From TrEMBL:
InterPro entries: AKR (IPR020471), Ara2-like (IPR044480), NAD(P)_OxRdtase_dom_sf (IPR036812), NADP_OxRdtase_dom (IPR023210). Residues 14-331 form the NADP-dependent oxidoreductase domain. This is NADP-dependent oxidoreductase domain-containing protein. It comes from Aspergillus chevalieri (Eurotium chevalieri). GO terms for molecular function: D-arabinose 1-dehydrogenase [NAD(P)+] activity. Keywords: Oxidoreductase. Residues 279-304 are annotated as: Disordered. Gene3D superfamilies: NADP-dependent oxidoreductase domain (3.20.20.100).
Length: 402
């Protein structure tokens, strides 16, 4: 397949289903989740991109199993959806960006996902390794893209936005080719908007085509019930002070007749969709109604409605969460300035709701105050040491000898 003719932004849709939730960090037993049903319903609703990673436990396997069913093969040919995965991070404290392991990881992902090619591959959580390691991994991914054709686009992902910007600038400077995508998470939310205010201008200057915003709930921080607790226990790196402030804000939102997670999802999805268009995508947004969704856009054709739209990655664990996400998404699309005239009632409702959300968001941010608005936790945390287990080294040696 080789290097694609057009930019990533022409092929990626603005809403991507994330699968980090198919993981023991977020759920006690990922195998008990209705993952195949979720993927099938997402596809039937027009969601045409899925983000995963080897680091997300069984997520690649579960996603691949869902995509390999007779239903998907009969109704959704491979070219109709995008698969996004990652290389480099294997476990919480295990990173391998070597060209040898990049090759192993790509082959393994192709097998797990039952596909002949990957649409986008990120170097995962780049802040945990050196810039030199990131550069060699990017070069190897591009070699695979150009010589083997099993990768279409290459990007990086991570948490600290300054590191992401520096690495994007380095890749352009050292290779003469910009990254196709740079994804951060929990950096455009109710609590932290620095991906837009600080990072986006630098990433655009570095020639990055698409900047997806992942985890609009801040890895589950912006929820009334607090951070999710899976079988790995409390993994969330946020400090107690921030959690306490979020709890106070959630209680205030309750008093206003709102749930903080509902406000957070709509706030992040809508603002990023509207304000990150320069680094957005123009693939078809999901506009097909899903079972259980009462309010959907009246534009039933699966066509772009606004050119480039800011890209968001949204993870779900059950059908109710999927339907709620799509309901909000459809309502946001209804309120776009280019929404069709036949959707005027829905458009008016959506625009009114947008103002309500912005008002509630301002109240929440005032409760968080200057101490916690735009606060970012340290990543990696103090004392981090990269440690590759013996099993990883054995697998790498076996692959090299084979």
């Amino acid at each position: 397949m080789g290097r694609p003719a057009g930019p990533l932004s022409a092929h990626l849709p603005p809403l991507v289903m994330g699968t980090a939730t198919f993981n023991t960090q977020f759920n006690p037993d990922p195998y008990a989740l209705p993952t195949t049903e979720l993927v099938h319903r997402a596809l039937a609703s027009g969601v045409s991109a899925f983000d995963t990673s080897p680091y997300y436990g069984p997520a690649e396997e579960l996603l691949g199993r869902a995509l390999a069913t007779d239903y998907v093969r009969a109704n959704h040919p491979r070219e109709s959806y995008r698969i996004l995965t990652k290389v480099g991070r294997e476990h919480a404290s295990s990173f391998d960006y070597s060209p040898e392991w990049v090759r192993v990881s790509i082959k393994r992902s192709l097998q797990r996902l039952h596909t002949e090619y990957l649409d986008l591959v990120y170097c995962h959580d780049v802040e945990f390794v050196s810039p030199a390691e990131v550069l060699q991994a990017v070069r190897e991914l591009r070699r695979i893209r150009d010589e083997e054709g099993t990768i279409r686009y290459v990007g990086i992902s991570g948490y600290p936005i300054d590191v992401l910007c520096e690495l994007a600038e380095m890749v352009l400077r050292e290779t003469g080719e910009p990254l196709d995508a740079v994804m951060s998470y929990a950096h455009f939310t109710l609590q932290n908007t620095s991906l837009l205010t600080r990072a986006l201008p630098r990433l655009l200057e570095a020639g990055v085509d698409v900047v997806p915003n992942a985890s609009p709930l801040g890895m589950g921080l912006l929820r009334r019930q607090g951070v999710p607790i899976g079988s790995q226990g409390d993994f969330h790196p946020s400090p107690a002070g921030l959690r306490g402030a979020i709890q106070k804000a959630a209680e205030w939102a309750d008093s206003q007749g709102e749930r903080i997670e509902v406000v957070a999802i709509r706030y992040a999805l809508e603002r990023w969709l509207r304000e990150a268009t320069e680094a957005g995508a123009s693939g078809p947004p999901p506009l097909v109604p899903s079972a259980g969704i009462e309010k959907v856009s009246s534009n039933r054709e699966n066509k772009p409605v606004h050119g480039r739209l800011g890209v968001s990655v949204m993870g779900v664990s059950n059908v109710g969460e999927l339907n709620e996400t799509l309901r909000v998404w459809h309502s946001i699309l209804d309120g776009l300035d280019t929404a069709p005239a036949s959707a005027s009632d829905d458009a008016n409702w959506s625009r009114t709701r947008r103002q309500q959300i912005l008002t509630i968001a301002q109240g929440i941010q005032s409760i968080l105050g200057s101490e916690w608005v735009d606060y970012a936790w340290e990543s990696p945390g103090p004392g981090f040491v990269n440690s590759l287990p013996e099993s990883h080294l054995e697998a790498k040696a076996k692959a090299g000898s084979g």
